[in-house]
């Protein structure tokens, strides 16, 4: 249900600054950066050329990664485009190709994409947010971090091979169009601090300089979201405003909001929720990085860290986050006095930055920073939530008004939901009971908050001197005032009320959360449920496989064995003879769709064994080959079979798994697929979906079929659906109109093979292995063509004929060709009815009983009689035949035996004498069999 | 068959014990000790000479023949099915050795030796070291694996796939299916171990929803995946018609038909060999004597007649084994050979009519009611009757002919009637009997006239007038 709550937030994209250059020919203007803001939110995110970004794709959880090369638009400013260099995620590389990597891939690993076939010009409005991408040497290990927003590049991928890639290429190549000054080199200005210490120094220096300097005016500007810094000062300038923003916002952040944001963000699994978040403030994510990085640090290194952090603006951010809940205490002092106290102080302290420029250089800043860090420490041990904390704060920061906040407050349910999910760690899909956890946590709140605050206090004592504390406390008032300022303007009274209420409710939760993560004793409801499900599941890494044999399979040694191997249905022929026309039709259909990047459906029908599936496979093989040599864009091929699933809805699960490797429940998979096929995804390859045994996907509402045929009609789906079934008029017979209509009229029917075709098939399979007489082949093909035209049958008969030939030969080494007699024997074996032999070989009493049945039928003139009636005839016949009298039990036994092998059809035997009897064979057959006897 | 073993086994063992303890070691009291001592004695004597006391010989005979008759021991070589044996063996060998996927159905009426054939083939196949190391076997039975879900779990369990935890298989049906298919798909002809699927009561698998299991098994057997051989065993001759056409198309259409085309002489011979002791019998002299007695037994005219009758009734191995088992259970130390009379008695037991036997236990009133019903059936040509009609008929008899019988009150008659219904000698016409009063509920007689007459002949101290009434044409 959570997927239903998908809210789309509208984002506004604006060019920042003046066009860098103007292309007269194309009438395009190049820009240096792009600002993204969310409607209703005062936050903006800046995208610069050379920066790495996430681009909205089909999959919510893994948006595409790319680097902006150029930002440009037309003169009117309506069209905004971005030229990008793509990066490919591990999940986007086709699973089989992933083997080429020769090692385990890192979840955060991406590949520099060198393939063609992907449009590198995207709509700027699909940009989500910046991310960090780092280059690693091929041999270097992946840093041990579960930061979701840092990607690592080792190799490049050109859709066939992996190659090592130059660091310069990846990390910060100055974009040709907007050649940024060298200072910009760290392509992600806000991110450097979040990178591990080793990577940081350069940027640190910059920011160190930047941080203390800021004149309050700039800060304020930043806070109000109006900061415009020149490109030249970008990295420094940018960090400063962010910090300022954070600080500013921190005061205003309600705990609830902070939490909810956090949750939303982290709840990457719930598409809807997450979407909203992303939309709301792309820049947010940058800070998440910082925060998460921070949190990952060890406690021991705190002091060190503090210093380091002091230089890097984003950290401030995180501080604010941690603080945010406290502010709430302010507003509702009655609620949680204890909890609120300390944190507020911190905020004050920080807000000091905001108003009076903090005096000294490095040293001067550090106390604050230390403080901040310390404040965070309890949280540092927690794993999940951090990201969003940062994010939300940021968001706040830019907002002079409270509007955004109130907005978020108005959706408590959603927040809670997200919260719970967050706790599940990102991989878990289902957020189950949001409410319950909330309540539980609420109860634990106050005590925990107290504890945590004690911890903070202790640490403060330990790590900082009195000065710190001094500074710490007084600023409180300032904070209060500033807060009020901020609020006063923006909020209407009732909004405030809502806000307060929301905060009060949410704040404890926030605290709990933090605590939860810091220690294992706290109840972790959802995760634990997830981790230990009631029934042990299949071991997660169970690899389905049949043990391999100890002794190698023997290879065919003589001609007949060779022929038998070739004739086995499973052996894939080099080409499919006699289906050239069908092959051509399907090929051109699929090819055109792939080239056009459109979607479509095709329905293929035909009786079993006419090569439907084989032809489609052949087409896909050919297309794959063509795609490999670059003649058509690459595509995905997914195959499902209605018979190979237990329930029609499993189709979603299988498609999803084959497309992305994700495992999901049927409902969830349906939602994800729906999303994938309906959202615009510039880089999505065409998907060719083969649905075999389509009729098995029938459900009462036919929603599975409906979806399968509806997706291709979506604008961005790029889905080609090929469906296969036996009946020609399946669409008319079982589909309701709206489904049949979507399936369309592209139909193809595979006619049963004629005898010439069958003969050709066998000959081509044998491929010059001379094992059959020409006449024998013709006999087989004619016989099969007359009966069913099923190529499988034909091959099976031939195979059996080779066996018979082999066994009939006196000397196994000197077997001749398979002749007419062998084929005849095989045909007899397969097509002869067993009934007549069975009757012939039945016991005397059974034969008499059959005779009695026929006699009774004749007497009655019906094709049905009770056992009692037949038995009378039976006894009479026994007398005629001179056999001894037969008992009822004996007669019934004979009757039951005949019934068991279905020569007779019987009612259930509990009916005794009244059981009705019918013949399952024609009377003529019975008489024929008995006469011959 | 099994039932007869069970019922006769106790009587035999106690008899046997008595014989042994009387002859050999009267001081032994506990039967367990007796057995132990016998075993010890046996092993000692085998070394010394091949003469054993009669009691021990009889024990040996019983155990050897019982093993044979209860199908616990496979015959050395399946008889009369050499061609089918060869076909199946070759087929499975090719799967085991060449990794060629195959599917085959063994079809034949019950008791024609389908399972025996398959077991013999498997025994022979596994005798080959090369095969034994490679082959994986999965045995399923349509009566046990009643749906695909259970069948899949069983397959996974027997294959020891990796989603097996201990002896249990977890995960949903869908998971299991995709796991198994994935596993089979990953294999290929030359490298994975061939899997032999034996589906007993194959026809029942065809009743599963969508025939998912069969489709998938046959599909695997017709595609380049892990090599599998699917062997279905069924007694339904129309089994192919049960398969959906797409399933049918994937089946290779190899059918091995088993029919017992025995003639009576072969049947006689079979009886003789089945009853004879093998050459490896510890006491050669006893074995010789026993075999000779069996030979004379089979040549006996009356025995031949009895066997002919059994042969006419059914050529099934099981019914023959049942007959021989009944004979065998009459062999004791006191009577160490099989007499023709034993065979006659056994045959009588085999052929006796169950319902007629039940009539012996009825009271005279109940019997009279049955006779009344018989007359009603005669008069109304099998139309159903009710208690009142039967009672009237009975009263007519009492008034007209009866000397020895007196009228019974209605409740007594009612009770007798209900008893007959409980014994299922009569049966209500329609199941929903709640609405009508019991006296007027329509019933049908579940007995044939011949059964009634037969029972009357044997009924102890049956009054003559009742007999006469039963035999008279009209009530």
UniProtKB/TrEMBL annotation, chain A:
SUPFAM superfamilies: P-loop containing nucleoside triphosphate hydrolases (SSF52540). Residues 177-199 have a biased composition (Pro residues). GO terms for molecular function: ATP binding; ATP hydrolysis activity; chromatin binding; DNA replication origin binding; metal ion binding. Residues 501-528 have a biased composition (Basic residues). InterPro entries: AAA+_ATPase (IPR003593), AAA_lid_10 (IPR041083), ATPase_AAA_core (IPR003959), BAH_dom (IPR001025), BAH_sf (IPR043151), Cdc6_C (IPR015163), ORC1/CDC6 (IPR050311), P-loop_NTPase (IPR027417). GO terms for biological process: chordate embryonic development; cilium assembly; DNA replication initiation; mitotic DNA replication checkpoint signaling; regulation of multicellular organism growth; response to yeast. It is found in: Nucleus. Residues 481-497 have a biased composition (Acidic residues). The keyword Cell cycle does not apply. Keywords: ATP-binding, DNA replication, DNA-binding, Magnesium, Metal-binding, Nucleotide-binding, Nucleus, Phosphoprotein. Its main location: nucleus. The keyword Magnesium applies. Residues 308-324, 390-401 have a biased composition (Polar residues). It holds the Pfam family AAA. GO terms for cellular component: nuclear origin of replication recognition complex. Belongs to the ORC1 family. Component of ORC, a complex composed of at least 6 subunits: ORC1, ORC2, ORC3, ORC4, ORC5 and ORC6. ORC is regulated in a cell-cycle dependent manner. It is sequentially assembled at the exit from anaphase of mitosis and disassembled as cells enter S phase. Interacts with CDC6 and KAT7/HBO1. Interacts with LRWD1 predominantly during the G1 phase and with less affinity during mitosis, when phosphorylated. ORC is composed of six subunits. This is Origin recognition complex subunit 1. The gene is orc1.
Automatic annotation (TrEMBL), chain B:
Transmembrane segments: none annotated. This is Origin recognition complex subunit 4. It is found in: Nucleus. Its main location: nucleus. One of its GO terms (molecular function) is DNA replication origin binding. Residues 1-26 are annotated as: Disordered. Belongs to the ORC4 family. Component of ORC, a complex composed of at least 6 subunits: ORC1, ORC2, ORC3, ORC4, ORC5 and ORC6. ORC is regulated in a cell-cycle dependent manner. It is sequentially assembled at the exit from anaphase of mitosis and disassembled as cells enter S phase. Interacts with DBF4. Interacts with POLQ. Keywords: ATP-binding, DNA replication, DNA-binding, Nucleotide-binding, Nucleus. Residues 100-261 form the AAA+ ATPase domain. Residues 10-26 have a biased composition (Polar residues). GO terms for cellular component: cytoplasm; nuclear origin of replication recognition complex. Component of the origin recognition complex (ORC) that binds origins of replication. Gene3D superfamilies: P-loop containing nucleotide triphosphate hydrolases (3.40.50.300). One of its GO terms (biological process) is DNA replication initiation. InterPro entries: AAA+_ATPase, AAA_16, ORC4, ORC4_C, P-loop_NTPase. SMART domains: AAA.
């Amino acid at each position: 249900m959570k997927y239903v709550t998908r809210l789309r937030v509208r984002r506004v994209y604006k060019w920042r600054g003046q066009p860098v250059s103007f292309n007269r020919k194309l009438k395009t203007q190049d820009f240096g950066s792009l600002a993204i803001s969310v409607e209703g939110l005062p936050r903006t995110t800046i995208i610069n050329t050379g920066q790495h970004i996430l681009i909205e794709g089909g999959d919510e959880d893994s948006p595409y990664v790319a680097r902006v090369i150029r930002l440009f638009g037309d003169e009117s400013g309506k069209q905004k485009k971005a030229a990008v260099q793509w990066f490919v995620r591990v999940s986007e590389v086709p699973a089989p190709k992933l083997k080429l990597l020769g090692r385990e891939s890192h979840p955060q690993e991406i590949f520099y994409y060198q393939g063609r076939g992907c449009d590198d010009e995207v709509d700027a409005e699909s940009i989500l947010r910046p991310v960090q991408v780092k280059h690693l040497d091929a041999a270097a290990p992946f840093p041990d971090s579960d930061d979701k927003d840092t990607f690592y590049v080792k190799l490049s991928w050109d859709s066939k091979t992996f190659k090592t890639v130059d660091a310069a290429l990846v990390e910060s190549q100055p974009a040709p169009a907007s050649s940024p000054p060298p200072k910009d080199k760290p392509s992600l200005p806000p991110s450097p601090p979040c990178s591990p210490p080793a990577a940081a120094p350069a940027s640190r220096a910059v920011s160190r300089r930047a941080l203390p300097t800021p004149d309050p005016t700039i800060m304020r500007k930043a806070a109000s979201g109006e900061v415009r810094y020149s490109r030249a000062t970008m990295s420094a300038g940018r960090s400063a405003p962010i910090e300022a923003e954070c600080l500013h916002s921190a005061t205003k952040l309600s705990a609830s909001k902070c939490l909810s944001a956090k949750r939303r963000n982290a709840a990457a699994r719930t598409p809807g929720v997450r979407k909203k978040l992303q939309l709301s403030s792309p820049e947010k994510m940058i800070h998440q990085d910082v925060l998460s990085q921070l949190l990952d640090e060890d406690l021991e290194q705190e002091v060190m860290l503090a210093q380091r952090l002091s230089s890097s603006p984003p950290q401030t951010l995180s501080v604010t986050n941690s603080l945010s809940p406290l502010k709430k205490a302010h507003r509702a002092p009655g609620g949680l006095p204890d909890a609120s106290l300390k944190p507020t102080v911190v905020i004050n302290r920080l807000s000091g930055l905001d108003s009076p420029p903090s005096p000294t250089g490095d040293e001067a800043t550090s106390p604050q920073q230390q403080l901040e860090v310390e404040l965070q420490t309890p949280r540092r041990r927690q794993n999940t939530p951090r990201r969003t904390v940062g994010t939300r704060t940021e968001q706040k920061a830019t907002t002079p008004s409270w509007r955004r906040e109130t907005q978020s407050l108005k959706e408590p349910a959603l927040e809670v939901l997200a919260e719970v999910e967050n706790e599940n760690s990102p991989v878990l899909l289902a957020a189950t009971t949001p409410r319950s956890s909330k309540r539980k946590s609420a109860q634990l709140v106050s005590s925990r908050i107290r504890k945590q605050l004690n911890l903070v206090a202790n640490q403060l004592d330990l790590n900082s001197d009195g000065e710190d504390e001094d500074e710490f406390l007084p600023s409180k008032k300032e904070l209060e005032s500033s807060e009020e300022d901020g609020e006063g303007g923006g909020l209407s009274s009732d909004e405030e009320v809502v806000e307060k209420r929301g905060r009060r409710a949410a704040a404890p939760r926030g605290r709990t959360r933090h605590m939860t993560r810091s220690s294992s004793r706290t109840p972790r409801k959802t995760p634990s449920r997830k981790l230990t499900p009631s029934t042990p599941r299949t071991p997660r890494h169970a690899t389905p496989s049949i043990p391999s044999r100890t002794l190698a399979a023997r290879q065919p040694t003589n001609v007949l064995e060779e022929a038998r191997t070739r004739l086995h249905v499973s052996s894939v022929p080099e080409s499919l003879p006699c289906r050239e026309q069908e092959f051509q039709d399907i090929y051109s259909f699929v090819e055109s769709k792939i080239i056009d990047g459109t979607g479509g459906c095709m329905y293929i029908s035909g009786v079993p064994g006419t090569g439907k599936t084989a032809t489609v496979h052949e087409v896909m093989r050919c297309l794959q080959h063509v795609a490999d040599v670059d003649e058509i864009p690459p595509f995905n091929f997914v195959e499902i079979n209605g018979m190979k699933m237990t329930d029609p809805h499993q189709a979603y699960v299988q498609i999803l798994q084959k497309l992305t490797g994700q495992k999901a429940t049927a409902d969830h998979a349906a939602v994800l697929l729906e999303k994938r096929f309906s959202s615009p995804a510039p880089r999505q390859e065409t998907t060719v979906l083969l649905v075999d045994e389509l009729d098995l996907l029938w459900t009462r509402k036919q929603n599975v079929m409906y979806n399968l045929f509806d997706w291709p009609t979506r604008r961005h789906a790029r889905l080609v659906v090929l469906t296969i079934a036996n009946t020609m008029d399946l669409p008319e017979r079982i589909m309701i109109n709206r489904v049949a209509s979507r399936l369309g009229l592209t139909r193809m029917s595979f006619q049963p093979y004629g005898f010439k075709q069958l003969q050709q098939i066998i000959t081509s399979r044998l491929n010059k292995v001379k094992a059959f007489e020409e006449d024998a082949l013709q006999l087989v093909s004619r016989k099969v063509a007359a009966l069913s035209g099923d190529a499988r049958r034909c091959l099976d008969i031939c195979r059996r004929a080779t066996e018979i030939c082999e066994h009939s030969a006196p000397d196994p080494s000197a077997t001749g060709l398979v002749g007419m007699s062998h084929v005849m024997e095989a045909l007899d074996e397969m097509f002869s009815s067993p009934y007549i032999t069975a009757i012939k070989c039945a016991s005397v009493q059974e034969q008499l009983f059959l005779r009695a049945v026929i006699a009774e039928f004749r007497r009655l003139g019906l094709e049905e009689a009770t056992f009692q009636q037949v038995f009378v005839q039976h006894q009479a016949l026994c007398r005629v035949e001179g056999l001894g009298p037969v008992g009822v039990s004996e007669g019934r036994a004979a009757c039951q035996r005949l019934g068991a092998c279905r020569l007779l059809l019987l009612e259930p035997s509990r009916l005794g004498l009244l059981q009705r009897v019918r013949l399952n064979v024609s009377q003529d057959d019975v008489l024929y069999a008995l006469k011959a006897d | 068959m099994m039932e007869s073993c069970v019922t006769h086994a106790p009587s035999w063992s106690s008899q046997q014990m008595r014989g042994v303890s009387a002859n050999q070691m009267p001081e032994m009291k506990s039967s367990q000790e007796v057995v132990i001592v016998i075993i010890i004695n046996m092993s000692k004597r085998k070394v010394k000479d091949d003469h054993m006391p009669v009691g021990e010989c009889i024990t040996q005979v019983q155990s050897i023949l019982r093993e044979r008759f209860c199908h616990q021991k496979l015959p050395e070589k399946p008889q009369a099915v050499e061609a089918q044996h060869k076909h199946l063996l070759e087929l499975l060998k090719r799967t085991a050795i060449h990794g060629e996927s195959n599917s085959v159905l063994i079809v034949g009426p019950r008791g024609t030796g389908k399972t025996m054939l398959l077991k013999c083939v498997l025994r022979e196949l596994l005798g080959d070291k090369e095969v034994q190391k490679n082959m994986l076997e999965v045995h399923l039975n349509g009566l046990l694996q009643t749906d695909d879900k259970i069948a899949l779990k069983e397959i996974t369990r027997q294959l020891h796939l990796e989603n097996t935890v201990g002896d249990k298989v977890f995960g949903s049906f869908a998971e299991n299916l995709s796991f198994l298919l994935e596993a089979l798909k990953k294999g290929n002809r030359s490298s994975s171990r061939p899997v032999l699927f034996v589906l007993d009561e194959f026809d029942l698998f065809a009743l599963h929803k969508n025939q998912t299991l069969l489709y998938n098994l046959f599909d695997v057997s017709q595609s380049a995946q892990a090599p599998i051989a699917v062997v279905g065993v069924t007694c339904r001759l129309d089994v192919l018609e049960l398969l959906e056409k797409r399933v049918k198309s994937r089946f290779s259409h190899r059918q091995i038909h088993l029919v017992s085309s025995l003639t009576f002489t072969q049947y006689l011979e079979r009886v003789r060999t089945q009853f004879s002791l093998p050459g490896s019998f510890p006491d050669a002299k006893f074995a010789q004597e026993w075999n000779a007695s069996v030979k004379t037994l089979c040549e006996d005219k009356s025995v031949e007649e009895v066997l002919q009758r059994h042969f006419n009734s059914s050529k099934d191995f099981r019914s023959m084994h049942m007959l021989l088992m009944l004979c065998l259970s009459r062999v004791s130390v006191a009577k160490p050979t099989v007499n023709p009379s034993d065979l006659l008695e056994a045959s009588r037991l085999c052929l006796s009519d169950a319902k007629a036997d039940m009539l012996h236990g009825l009271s005279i009133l109940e019997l009279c009611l049955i006779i009344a019903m018989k007359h009603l059936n005669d008069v109304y040509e099998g139309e159903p009757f009710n208690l009142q009609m039967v009672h009237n008929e009975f009263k007519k008899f009492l008034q007209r002919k009866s000397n020895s019988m007196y009228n019974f009150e209605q409740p007594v008659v009612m009770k007798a009637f209900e008893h007959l219904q409980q014994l299922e000698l009569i049966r209500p016409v329609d199941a929903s009997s709640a609405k009508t009063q019991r006296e007027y509920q329509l019933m049908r007689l579940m007995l044939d006239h011949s059964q009634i007459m037969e029972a009357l002949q044997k009924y102890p101290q049956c009054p003559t007038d009742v007999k006469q009434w039963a035999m008279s044409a009209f009530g």
